[in-house]
Amino acid sequence: MAAEDERRDKAPTRPSTGGALLWTVASLPLPGVAHLRMRRRLAGTVILGVYLVGVAALVLGLVRIGTHEAGAMTVLAGMAVQDRWLLGVMGAVFVVAVLWLTVIVHSWAITRPEGAQFGQRLLGGVVVLLLCLTVGAPAAWALHGGYTAYETLGEVFDAPERDDLPPHDAADPWYGADRVNVLLIGADSADNRYGVRTDTMMVASLDTDTGDAVLVGLPRNLENVRFPEESALADRYPEPYGFDLLLNDVYQTVAEEPEELALNPIAADPAADTLKKVIGHNLGLEVEYYAMVDMMGFRDLIDAVGGVRVRIEEPIPYGVHGGVLEPGVRRLDGHEALWYGRSRIGSDDYGRMGRQGCLVKYVAEQVDPTTVLTSYRRLAGATKRTLTTDIPQSKVPAFIELADELTDHGDMSALQLSPPQVSTGNPDWDEIKELVAEAIAVSEEEDDAPLDEPSASPDGDRPEDAEDPTPEEWEEWEEDERTEWQRYTGLDEPSPADPGRQVGSEATDLGSICP
């Protein structure tokens, strides 16, 4: 009898089918409780203890991320673009999911009543299957997402570290530099046209501390481009005549003869790398990186983040079928956003440049790390199809932090190298370098002076006995009081109608010229 009692104490009576299911369901939020119920104390204690320690570690990690000065979503986005974190998380998810599924199945196996009827066994199997799906489905979703991100990062940000810089340091990714400069390229290609045209070119100069950005827009029709001395391009197109095509032809010119003309023929994209260095040479800047987006693919990127919200003040015709972007606050889809930045109907290249600068501003303001994380599947597909860059993967987290700083606290200004401040047919490159240097050095508050404030007439405060101004004085005053835009165009409007169109030779706060 004593032996029988001892066996009964070691192996308690199994619960009914309903009880077994309840204990199995309880093992989902508290793995190991079913084992404790069946007096498998060692196994139950280890399983439940490891689970609780893991939950505590996860909560502690989330608290630390949530209190990080960069913000929780920025930190998570930065981790999500690093292979070591992706692979580590994927491995942890796989191991935890397998162990959790094993515990659920084993909980049912040790609690189910012996000799149960077919219907009871079927019910138990269905419940266990549903419990396993509760764990397995999210795990599979996370593993697929991790693999998608890993594959995308490997394809897009596969550029090697620069040989002329020290090894990457996460604590100081910019090597103590005050600014980092990136060439943004919009490439335009079509089946009915030979080659690739880089119709959109702007250098984003980013303050590595505050995130403040100066966008230097370069018209596609800039002529007499200079090339670095002793380069193959400089030998092929010597001064004073120089390059006899437009700036947007540099890429295709190099792409046709990369071995002969590229500044670095072994670069992943020798033409883009050369364009980056040529533009930096002409602006007097060290342009460290480039990012090139196919303009048709830009449509897919905007669709992937759910569109972009834009205020349109005047109708903007677009397309070949008579489409019009009507005035008002509108959320543009990818197709509409593409034409917002491309349309020249009733406008010109420079008005289009202005809208492109505004579009960059709107996207920077509205696409935050949360949007990236929640839209990563569509973004990944669009990015692989449309984006090429020489930014190495190690620098991506630092760029995410800069973008977040710009969105939250930074200012964005634009300097358009277009008429009237620059002659595109015969540009003075030395003067252009000075304009760019001043735009970067001078604060946006000082640059953003209103253009159309009313001013006093020449005789507004003169004494009563003063003589009336002579016609020459009136003419001189009227010329002085006219805005630079009025003097350049001869129109009565004090400023251009196109949003984002710069007037004057100083960088302008995009917030003041983008509706």
Walk me through what this model shows.
The protein is 51% helix and 13% strand. It is elongated and about 110 Å long. The longest helix is centred in the N-terminal third of the chain and has 39 residues, at 118-156. Helix 13 packs antiparallel against helix 14 (349-366). It is α+β, with helices and mostly antiparallel strands. Strands 9-4-1-2-3-10-11 form a seven-stranded mixed sheet, sandwiched between helices. A two-stranded antiparallel sheet has the order 5-8. The chain has a two-stranded antiparallel sheet with strand order 6-7. The chain starts with a helix and ends with a helix. The protein has helices at 2-10, 17-26, 33-37, 41-66, 72-80, 83-111, 118-156, 232-236, 250-256, 258-261, 270-283, 295-304, 334-342, 349-366, 369-374, 376-386, 396-408, 429-441, 444-447, 471-481, 484-489, 510-513, and strands at residues 179-190, 193-207, 213-218, 289-294, 308-312, 316-318, 323-325, 328-332, 387-389, 412-416, 508-509.
